[in-house]
Amino acid sequence: MRSIGRILVLCLVVGLGAAVLVWRDRSAGRSTARLREISAFSDFPVGREFRRGQRARLTHEPGTDVSAYPTFRSAKPLYGSVSFGGELAKPGSGHEYCFAVDESKGTGEGYDRLHFDLNRDLDLSNDQPVLAWDSPPERAKEAREKWGGVESHVCFRYVDVSLGPEGDGGRTVEIMPQLLGFEKAHLALFLATKLRRGKVRIAGQRYDVLLGHPYSVSDRFDLPSTSMFLIPKKAPRSRARWWGADTLGALHTIGGKLRRFSVTPDGDRLSVNEYDGELGTFEVGTGGREISDVWMTGSLQTETAAVAVGKPFEKGRLEHVTSCRLPVGDYLPNYLTFGFGRLVISVSMNYHSDGKKRDLDGRVRVFGIEIREEAPFVFDFSNEPDVLFASPAVGARVKRGDELKVAAVLIDPKLDIMIRDLVDTGPVAETEDTLFGFGDKGNERKLKASLDPKVTITRAGGEVLAEGVMPFG
Asked: From edge to edge, which strands make up the β-sheet containing 205-212?
């Protein structure tokens, strides 16, 4: 980004308990372990992570595809839909369920009855209503503690959903629906109540393994997006914490070698193998600018794998590097932070579309960071940047007196990446300091607040209508 280069220069100038069977396979570099089913509400490491639940927004408008609803007691029932069993790389691959929430005691008395289209016939009047739980599991309260401003929290009884191919039945997944009420909105959470746990030894080190679906309900454990926490027994706090590390598709450096993981669809057996494929080089460059101190840290993502950019350090953090060796493949950035002298820039994949904020469904992702064996990929911000308006959409019209919300992001259109932050680390007045941490051997730096651009909106004749700071990302 040559324009970015000018921006950089300008900014610098201005300024478990039970025993689990564990064994090592005779094949070199291979470890295997059996995993057993446990409750999401039992006591185990990182338990809170598995009690988050898949989100679904609710409105007071009925679904257009639903043919029939039951007779509601509430004058303001809530309506929503949720998709289970889909694959992240295949939008629309899941099973869609419509639902509604009623107040059995009348309007304003509290939502306590869930009508869930379990047979997926788009008729909610022929499904048995799911009642609220008077005494839900104690740890179910964590869902409320996670969110700020929650005014009501209702846990419904367990529901069994079958997510196999149509007509097959497939594996059954037990979920617990929850309803969080805020001042002006409601949010539904669907928690998968079971996960897998086991122990494995890799390169002489023992690990506790937890496998499940805290963010999206699924009947399969073998998908790369399945959440997997690899927790060292000797130092649990040192588990990897880079973006994407807690997924089955992540490759981890253990014993000086890259390791890849796989499990059976039922999640009852885990396999660990040394990565023996080709490697290429990923490095940060200056793009011809006169900058001597450059570094990077973070992670990259292919369609099926996540890899760290940086050297593993204490407490799961990554040490800065100027280059690293990665498996050959096409990547996009999960989250990367770069240092160019005094300037620190963070980037990620772009999750906005023209006129649509956070539009990921059906969006073609660009895996533009091509790691090859024969030549390094140099990331130097040399592509021409562009501004993407996530709001308003092209051709959008507003009535006189209505409020128009403008949201713009700075992107690299060639790689389809988004600038998430841009910070000057130079000395500033103490009152202007903000504390940030970038994983540099555990040392935090005092940084100037993000260099968010000032945006001015004017009429064609020059009259200023509005102005203010627009944050990155």
From this structure: 36-39, 194-202, 205-212, 227-232
